[in-house]
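Here is the promised in-class demo. Please do not try to memorize the tokens; focus on the logic of going from shape to residues.
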């Protein structure tokens, strides 16, 4: 502190002028800061109302009243919270008090985000987030449909393996008819065994071929449904109404994907391959000689060995198809706008930033005021109150001093003795008055 009679230094005088300038700016800003904070609070409450409305299924009067009550409470809470901090945080001077208020600001900011900001984001980007959910679901269904179709086609490709095995047995039967296998020309026991297995494979081949049109028709119908679902994601209008139709299309598409899985012939080929070698009806050896019957028996044994090898090859091919990774089960789950905004938050960062900024922007004003008040205090540090008075304040102080002196002069001093009043002069007698005349 400077001595009372010492004049201000140049730096101190500049500091005082700087502090007065900042105070003038703060006084001017205070004229509309409350209004601005109120506008931000009301705007946040409006978007909160829209977000709450999207969560309520009922559109009755009670739901509207509940949404209004919640949004009003949010607006009042935001206004009161930031008003407290704008007044108290710049005024405190100790680090402990500032740390405490910073902690309270952090907790309050989290509470505001939890009760308001995510609803604001739902109001800003709720419809777009639901459309994003629809688009992602379409992509998942498309992947599942294509995968199911691919596995079904891979199963249909087993038809070539079955055809090749059937053709090999037919060729062997022709050789047996010419006498190249058992040495006995004609259609004997060996020929009938070969024809028996060739007929079984022919029936399996026909059954596989009959599945091909069903697979293609299911895939075509699935693509048609997918096209409609894609159109629903971008069509104008209420997204809730589109979600209902989208859900119906998703159910039909899921049924087609399941049908494609069932049309896979790999399990059928595997069972047929197992039965191919296990169920053989051996005919009676029809050679007229013992040597011929021995040759037929040996040939049938060789045929059965070949049959087992071909059956094992078909079984492995069918198992390879069945071991392929199946299409992922996709289930469309309708979600609200608020849930969609949270689920796809990364895709709507600007909307989240705007929703949070409208609630937490006053925090910047709190720090601005704190910095400014700190600068004012630093500029006045080392100066007395008499050095910081303005001319108007000095005139007001002088006027107040005069009023105090006048009031003191008009009141009696209790320490002085009381003043005795002069006695009144007695009235003259009537005779004396007449003589004098």
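The designed amino acids, position by position:
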């Amino acid at each position: 502190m400077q001595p009372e009679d010492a004049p201000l230094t140049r730096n101190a005088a500049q500091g005082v002028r700087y502090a007065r300038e900042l105070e003038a700016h703060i006084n001017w800003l205070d004229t509309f800061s409350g209004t601005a904070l109120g506008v931000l609070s009301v705007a946040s409450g409006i978007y909160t109302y829209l977000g709450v409305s999207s969560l309520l299924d009922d559109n009755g009067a009670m739901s509207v009243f509940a949404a209004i009550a919640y949004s009003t409470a949010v607006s009042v809470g935001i206004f009161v919270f930031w008003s407290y901090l704008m007044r108290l945080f710049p005024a405190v001077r100790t680090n402990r008090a500032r740390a405490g208020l910073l902690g309270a600001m952090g907790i309050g900011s989290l509470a505001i985000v939890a009760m308001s900001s995510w609803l604001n984001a739902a109001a800003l980007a709720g419809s777009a987030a639901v459309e994003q959910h629809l688009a992602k679901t379409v992509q998942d269904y498309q992947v599942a449909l294509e995968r199911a179709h691919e596995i079904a086609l891979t199963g249909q490709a087993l038809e070539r393996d079955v055809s090749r095995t059937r053709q090999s047995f037919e060729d062997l039967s022709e050789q047996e008819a010419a006498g190249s296998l058992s040495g006995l020309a004609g259609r004997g026991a060996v020929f009938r065994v070969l024809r028996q297995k060739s007929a079984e494979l022919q029936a399996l081949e026909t059954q596989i071929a009959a599945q091909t049109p069903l697979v293609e028709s299911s895939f075509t119908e699935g693509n048609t449904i997918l096209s409609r679902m894609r159109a629903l994601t971008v069509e104008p209008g209420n997204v809730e109404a589109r979600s209902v139709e989208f859900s119906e299309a998703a159910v039909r598409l899921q049924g087609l994907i399941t049908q494609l899985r069932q049309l896979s012939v790999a399990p059928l080929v595997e069972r047929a391959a197992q039965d191919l070698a296990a169920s053989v009806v051996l005919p009676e050896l029809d050679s007229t000689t013992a040597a011929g019957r021995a040759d037929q028996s040996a040939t049938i044994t060789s045929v059965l060995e070949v049959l087992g090898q071909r059956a094992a090859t078909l079984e492995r091919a069918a198992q390879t198809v069945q071991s392929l990774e199946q299409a992922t089960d996709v289930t469309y789950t309708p979600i609200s706008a608020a849930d969609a905004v949270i689920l796809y938050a990364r895709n709507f960062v600007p909307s989240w930033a705007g929703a949070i900024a409208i609630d937490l922007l006053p925090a910047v004003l709190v720090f601005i005021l704190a910095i400014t008040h700190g600068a004012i205090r630093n500029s006045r540090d080392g100066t007395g109150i008499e050095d910081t008075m303005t001319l108007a304040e000095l005139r007001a102080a002088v006027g107040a001093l005069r009023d105090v002196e006048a009031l003191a002069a008009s009141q009696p001093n209790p320490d002085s003795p009381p003043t005795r009043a002069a006695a009144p002069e007695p009235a003259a007698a009537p005779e004396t008055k007449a003589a004098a005349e």
